[in-house]
Amino acid sequence: MTVSPDLDRRFREAAYGLDLLDMGFDVVDTPIGPLFVAASGHGLAAISFEAEPDEQLESLARIAGPAVLRSPKSVAEARRELDEYFSGRRRVFDLNLDLRALPPFTVSVLHELARVPYGQTTTYGALAAKVGRPRAARAVGTVMNRNRIPIVLPCHRVVGSTGDLTGYAGGLDRKATLLELEGAR
Amino acid sequence: MMDAVAIPPFERFYEQHRVEVLRLLRRRLGVDRADDAFQETFLRALRAYRRLEHGEHLRAWVLTIAQNVALDMLRRAKPTVELVEVGADDSRPAYEVLADLTDGLPPKERAAVVLRYGYDLSYEQIAAALDSSPDAARQATSTGVRRLRRSASHDRIS
Questions:
Q1: Hey, is the C-beta of B91 within 8 angstroms of any chain A C-beta?
Q2: pTM beyond 0.90, yes or no
Q3: Which residue in A144, A163, B8, B65 has a CA-CA distance of 20 to 30 Å to B36?
């Protein structure tokens, strides 16, 4: 015996509709592969290239609380904006972000990162200078590396001082693809 | 280490127990009404989930919630139903330990006593299972215990 997809869907929708979730997640299909996407009442909280949720649920629960459930409606807005972005119809994301539990330096770096325009690149050093810590390029690199919300917080637009792509959580191929999509390469 | 068992993300808890919950509800209510009860059961669990203090006995906890949702639905549908009979088979894991001892108690008191002393759950958790307040859960537990004491002393006399 199994729980029918319809019954399962109705429960998940009711849980979302009654605002009982600390965090809802789903998998969103994109041209660069399936993405794990999670959002809370505060906003978009995570995007991961590791689409298999198993790894992520505990860390989401630590951030937001244990009421973490797969809930397509929770990520409907993010899904729509990602679709638009990947089809070239959106250059700026208009989503609230859930940056709870991040240290102040990380948050200030991410705020600056969010201002790097579509189709342009910057360097770790330049970003460090923007947050008033010109010698903290390496620390900025660490923040990029741990960016919980890639694509929407565009760490793919940050490259090495020589123009090398240097690294990306989703792999360098994906970084290159995103920059090509934006016409930056 | 005395670390309490961590509370799993609700998704895992739901996936782990949903089939068993649905099976129990179908047995109690029939296929048609089981769907509504299924949703109600997991919504009650979800409402209480943030207040859980540890992740132990979650299976017993959710099956007790399901049991009570089924009782509520049967009560609403047919006020004269024999409540003791409704619950009287061996599929209620929460009652395994204290089943014989608490057999004569009213359902809510019985559930409260078993969850408190059989599974060591907090009154918060019991309240969620019974869909009532922690105070009411405490009350049901102590009333149940008093009733057991009375019947125990009565047994000795007779």
A1: no
A2: no
A3: B8
